[in-house]
Amino acid sequence: MSFKCRHSGCRGVSLHIPLGAHGLRLCKIERGDLVICEKVRFLGGAEAVDTVLRRASITGKVGPVGEAGDFWADILDENGDWFETIALDRGSWNGLKNHWMKCKVQSGND
């Protein structure tokens, strides 16, 4: 599944969301420590993941699939296992965490 987003955060890049996508888990590096949020699964599968990432692109950069920086989301399969990543920036990460798929921090190095 792919879409070409018109929002400035995506820069018009087509994202190719894997058909096996059923959820996301937000991750980031903060002050040298890995921060991982709880997993969020979507009943709508890849289409729902696609929709949430489109919404996140309103507040920041999303993609490309297969890359990560200081902010990213693990793409989860139907069993909740990680199988791919998608790059985010601070704005899109915060938009997802606090608005589009509210979730709590699950772990981090203290």
Describe this structure in words.
There is one protein chain. The N and C termini lie far apart (38 Å). This protein is α+β, with helices and mostly antiparallel strands. The model is unreliable at 1-13 (pLDDT under 50). It has helices spanning 45-56, 90-100, and strands at residues 2-4, 14-16, 23-30, 33-37, 40-41, 62-65, 71-76, 82-88, 105-108. Helix 1 (45-56) packs across helix 2. Strands 3, 4, 5, 6, 7, 8 and 9 form a seven-stranded antiparallel β-sheet that branches. Helix content is 21%, strand content 38%. It contains two helices and nine strands; from the N terminus they run E-E-E-E-E-H-E-E-E-H-E.
Output mean pLDDT.
Answer: 84
Please provide the count of β strands: 9
Any idea what the shape is? globular
**Poorly predicted regions:** 1-13
The portion of residues assigned to helices is 10-25%
- One letter per element, helices H and strands E, the order comes to EEEEEHEEEHE
Strand content: 35-45%
Q: Describe the biggest sheet? A: 7 strands, antiparallel
**N→C terminal distance:** 38 Å
